[in-house]
Write a structure and sequence with these properties.
Shape: rod-shaped
Radius of gyration: 33 Å
Order of helices and strands: EEHEEEHHHEHH
Distance between the termini: 93 Å
Strand order of the largest sheet: 2-1-5-4-3-6
């Protein structure tokens, strides 16, 4: 289980985020932000494909992270990560987050998200969490499939996004194949050209050695023969 992405928001307003990877999960996250109720403190998880989103709401601020193993039972780590991030964020910004504009804290807090993600992705993090457990037992945290909270149009939007990414991948592969084929063709031409020049040079050297620099020997032999 690896924490790949983390985000802090007030409603739909993203205040800070960081990711170790690429994908369409920012799109999924933006859809989720419109569905999550932040008027009460809660912790929950959503499954999407091979990923699972964990989040906690506290004082109308949402703290969310994405992991790459929805089958993992080690939810203690991501929730401890979120609680650690929450405490750091509150200590740094306090009530400023209530009125901050989008990404107002990103430049300063994104490196903190990165450091804490690296820390909690360390295999020793689970042992540390068991000794210094800061959250209540998370075994009873509700886990839902993300499709259950999305409207039909939003599901289609994600499907179209997946299709676009597949088409883009196919186009990139075709373009790369064409470039490779052209590169192989010119490489072959270059080899033939070099081979032709080498053979020509060898023929010239042999002729020069046999006939002399001004080809006078060969001319004399021709005259004698006549």
């Amino acid at each position: 289980m690896t924490i790949l992405y983390s985000l802090i928001s007030r409603g739909k307003t993203v205040l800070a985020e960081f990711t170790f990877t690429s994908g369409n999960f920012p799109t999924i996250t933006r859809l989720l932000l419109g569905k999550i109720q932040t008027d009460r403190d809660v912790k929950m998880s959503y499954v999407y494909d091979q990923y699972i989103f964990h989040y906690i709401c506290s004082d109308h601020i949402l703290y969310l992270c994405m992991c790459d193993d929805p089958q993992s039972t080690k939810r203690r780590i991501p929730f401890n990560f979120l609680e650690d991030v929450r405490q750091r964020f509150v200590n740094m910004y306090g009530d400023a987050s209530r009125t901050a504009i989008a990404f107002a804290m990103n430049a300063e807090f994104a490196p903190i998200l990165q450091n804490q993600m690296e820390l909690f992705n360390n295999p020793a993090a689970d042992q540390f969490a068991q000794v210094h457990q800061k959250l209540d037992d998370v075994k009873n945290v509700m886990v839902q499939n993300i499709e259950m909270v999305l409207e039909r149009g939003e599901k289609l939007e994600l499907l179209v996004d997946k299709t676009d990414r597949l088409n883009a991948t196919a186009f990139t592969f075709e373009k790369s194949s064409r470039k490779l084929k052209e590169a192989m063709f010119w490489k072959k031409v270059k080899v033939y050209l070099i081979l032709f020049l080498v053979i020509s040079f060898v023929v010239f050297v042999i002729t020069w050695a046999a006939c002399g620099a001004d080809f006078s020997k060969c001319s004399a032999e021709d005259d004698d023969g006549k």
